[in-house]
Amino acid sequence: QVQVTESGGGLVQAGGSLRLSCTASARTSTNNAMGWFRQAPGREREFVASISWNGGSTVYSDSVKGRFSVSRNRAGSAFLQMNALNPLDTALYYCAVGRSSYAGRDPGGYTYWGQGTQVTVSS
To answer: For position 29, what pLDDT does the model report?
Structure first.
């Protein structure tokens, strides 16, 4: 059983920045893609960004492209740098471990999920 933990959420003003971190309890994440999703109350969970097993490929939702950046380190942790935050970015952000070395927008491409970290952006 792989435990996935996100951190770094908080309350920021519009235009501000936050950096989210994701750590998995097992080393499987070092050879698998990592992804970020978010969900606001009353809305469907939506894809945010993903990164391949070696960090060589990234995928972004159109809503965050140019503002958010996904990265990972050699230990398999993933990060989401969020800039120019807007109140519409307010959501619970989830990190997930992909089923294989590459994973994209489909949540079915991920096996293990974190509990989420809350990001709230005030106007």
So the answer is: 76
